[in-house]
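Why does this matter for the project? Reviewers at the last site visit asked to see concrete outputs rather than summary tables. In response, this paragraph embeds two records directly. Each consists of the residue sequence and, immediately after it, the corresponding structure tokens. Nothing has been edited or filtered.
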Amino acid sequence: MLNYSRLLAVLALLSMPVAGAWADAARLAQLVDYVGVDYPEAVQNGEVVSDLEYAEMLEFSTLIQDEIESLPEGPSREALQPLSAELEQAINAKADPSVVARLSAQMSAILLTSTTLAAAPAEVPDIGSAAELYRTQCAHCHGDEGAGDGLAGQGLEPAPTDFTDPARARERSLYGLYNTITLGVEGTGMTPFPQLPAEQRWALAFYVGGMHVDDDTRARGELEYRERQDGLLPSLRDVATTRLSEVAARQGEAAASLHAWLRLNPDALARARPDPLSVAMSGIRSSVDAYAEGNAAAAADLAVDAYLEGFELAEASLGTTRPDLVIEVENAMTALRTAIRRGEPVDQVRIAGERALALLQQARDARAEDSLSPSVAFTSALVILLREGLEAILIIGAMAAFLSQTGRRDALRWLHGGWLAALGLGVLTWAVSNYVVEISGATRELTEGVTALVAAAVLFYVGFWMHSKLHARRWQEFIQSSVRAALDRRSLLAISGIAFVAAYREVFETVLFFQALWVQSSAPASSRAIVAGFVVAALLIVAIAWLIFRIGVRLPLRQFFGVSAAIMIALAVIFVGKGVAALQEAGKLPFDPVDIPRIDLLGIYPSWQSLLAQVLVLAVALALVFRNARATA
């Protein structure tokens, strides 16, 4: 009778009048979670140990497939279908419980990625109030210590859950507990608690989900938290949705202890720096929810913030190991913003959101596998500084060579003053953003976009000016007008300004990327590797600058001006593309996608706006070059 009643309970659950897509996903999640946790009671060592339990598992696997088929079209359904078939085959074959647990965990992870599932508390649960709530609502069945030995629970079939059993607790997520508290299990002593507000149900889930944690696990978890406090910590959603066994398998027992400790101390997450990928995922869910509620403007803002305040901060370190995944995530997040801006149906926006969430989860898994080891930290720091510094060096090196070529070495101090001022402002930017105020994502992108466009305009002018001096007659006229007289105080200030703009744009981006990188390097060895990468990159930049200067000084004037003009105009085209892209990411310019690859090095991005801006600059440059050539023919 016991097992038939539990089967009827789940069947009754499926017919409960809980409206909306959330209820459908919640019921499916409960079935998947139930199979993963209870299958060992049906099969052990390839043998059925309980016919009735095994009959349940067979029935539930069919129900799971039926529920998945009823889901709307989208990435979640497509990913779940083969797994549900594999789950049914494993149960039919009396597979080892570890196989069923793995499939259940994979399916739960997909469901929890779905934007239709309210799988995390809206705010940090109040564990203090949960203790009293447990005493009044739960202790009479589950016992004062959660061991399932309460007076009212005696004789119940099935017996109340023993929350102190660590083996079972490690296979059950807090969301699974919340789901059970919300929906109950009809036909058993576990009744639903819809009268409790969601925040109290979550508080109870966290409280009972931590009852199994012993003193040693608490101590290890707290130590891990202190070591990671300014580094990578799980989000509140991670703690709510991830099974401890899954954390241990993917990240080790230290991480599992951290998750267990955070079940008892979720407020600790509010005091820590958030993980940027978790911020991105949370922002996408909020964006899709806002769009479903009819607030397209808020959805667009939230989608932009998900990128600016989240993924962009993790992009630099992830790009050194998985550049292909970085591009996929950026394209998916762009597709979501585009779908919102175009006013596409809610289902299409939800599909775009789930696609972005799935890729962000891949990014988190990839980063967890690398865990910012010293080698990854060193490479990331080296690549970031080299990439950002090279553009500035090309400009400043060409200008330094020009001043030496024209006999104005005295003006070099103005040039060096410009880029040194940019470095000083960069240090101030680092200090302000770390200790005074946090620079918002929109501010970052606006600063990058505006400085890129200003730099492009200056470089275009300088490049065209240098091209105009290619011909001997014009160069002689320029010399005769006295270079020294031409470089008056206003011109010297302009030279200093060009160096400042060229350098500060790169310094600003470097500061932001290194902030994100430093946050992810809680281990001392990784921190030292970042410093080492920075130093090596700085030395390489100095060597490249010296080489550019030496080559530029030795080139004949005509070749020097030709090469310098080409570099300046090419950089102007690159900066225009980067400036437009940055303003698009800040939500200040529209974005219409085009199917081309993204090439950051060349400032090429898959949007009509950035490409047309680059084509326009290039066309104007070619027209001016052609006119200049005809005038000197």
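We now turn to the second protein, recorded in exactly the same manner.
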Amino acid sequence: MSLGGNDFTEIPARISSLRSLRHLRLSNLKKITSLGRDIVDLPNMEIIDCDGCQSLQTPPLAVCKKGIQAIRSYYNNLADGFVNEPPVLAGAVIGNKMAGKTSLILSLKNNRRELTYRNEQDLNDDATRAFKVNEVAVGDKRLSLFDFGGDKVYHITYQMAIRANYIPIVVINMKQYADLTASSTANQAARQLCMDYLSHLYLACPKLGSPILVVTHKDCFGDFQFDCKKNELLKEVESIRREMKEEEEAVYLQGGNENRLSHIEHLRNTGKNIFHPKDIVAFGKDLSDMDGINYLKARIENRCDGGDKIPKLWKKIAKFIDEHSDDSHITFAEISAEFPGEDLLHVLHYMHDTGRILWFENDVNLSNFIFHRLSVITDMITTLFNHQSRSLWQKRLEEFQPFVFRSRLITKHEFVSMVDKFHATGNLDEAIICVLLEKHELPVDIAVNILTSFSIVCGPIIKPSGGAYFILPYFSERAIEIDTRGSQLIPLRTCVQFVGLPPPSYVYNVMTATFLNAFTDHGFHITTGANGAVVKHGTYISRIFHDNKHHRLSIQTEWPIKELDYGWRYLFQLLEYIIGHLISVWEAAHPVVGFTCAHCLYLGVTDPYVKMNPDWYTLPTQQRPTLGERLKKFEGISYVDCPNEQRNYGPLNVPKPLQFPCEYPTVS
């Protein structure tokens, strides 16, 4: 039964008499506050879909999203007593460097207009690294504001911290916008300062609601000029949204696998502006501007009505976790020992979704750790991504003291060599990464698990000479060459085009790290570049190349002609391993897959023939195994035309295995 889209404030009483009801759909009942125990206890009830029921308090929406068992557990605990929890809001403050995000948060926190003055060229510049969490009082509600660093490399932290109930707050420096418009175009300025940040946020969490827009540096313009610039920005933002939607729909009509933009309700709804006029606030340098602060707080407070009714047991569990605030983390085993026999999963789900803890429950290497002080995560990421500056490394070298690592002395000469290699290749010796991370509260092994689980780094990779290193694809300064002419191997290549809502630039480096994690054995020789990586193992070669400006990714393997069928299988396994990881983290990413004619590649043709979305290939699902698993060894060779090789007598006939994956069953 579906009740979605109505104005019900409660579930109609007669529904509780439908004892055969198995699936109740309540999607987007925005005014409903309670489910009622009677509905949950219907004997055949299996699914209650509460997606979009933002006003739910009993049970809280964070509980309902976890399914019928979580809802029943909540009511069972509630029977032993409850407390009324003040409403908890969480906001994600995003925007470019120098936009004014930190000034805005300080103004909301201290309830007065405050400005921070920064110089991003200064080594001591207090710019936000990764993200910080600030508690702000908004009426009777508590607001946790996640202040994300403006550098685009910190987009990677969105996937760690963002949840569906967060309020996106986009901050744009209108002076930066005007300057970029003058040097390029208004469309490019809007894309760089707004849509790049906003779309990447929705990529990390496609269920986010509508955003709030804060425009700063109003004082740099006259009133009329400011309004014109602001309206121009909003017009370009809507234009970019239409471009993305049209591009994706065109690919979908041509046989694309799925229209991914439709997963993001707010961006796909072209009947509404991305920014509602009431959700736009402007600030200048006026320190007496309390009206803007009060108005913004009111708009934030408007996103949440009432509070949550929390079982007393849940409150005890939360208090127990808070009592360990001096520790970097607490383990699931420690909580289970204190509360044996209790269903802790739903409590931790609730605390995670309300921004009180970070719990990576789906990662086998991290699921036992609950990080209740988010600073231990952010400090670790800050250290890692704040060390690329050569001037900072120079300061470290000036203060360097020899140290012992794994029973060997690291001299200054060796340390300099490690740093130079890192700048050239992106390879960071384990001695350095351990020294960097040992200065923080988080144990090194857990810190490394976090970094590798989110594909921020690849490794550790054991060196033949002993020791190990990690690879950070972001920081390699060299480029990987694609040219393979002269090789006796047959190159097989798949090309992936991202359309509609393309992944941010750092995602391509994450996919490179994911690719390299398949080759961590010391027998592989790895070369990393700013645009990809090459792995050699004996005579076999695998490559990954990316071009984030044109939203393209290529994966290539090179095999002897006699093993071509194995080469195709291997290529599919790599492709689906990487794309599977991508879609699991950035749900809205829309990959369109093409396959290049191996004959063209072997001859070194400048513009090889590519089949995009061929009818014999679709991305794997739970019901359909990967094509690599379903391939059969080919017998005999037939010929097909290659449209790229026009001769006097028409297209060139090439062996079929150079264009198709040997023998394959029909895709249903």
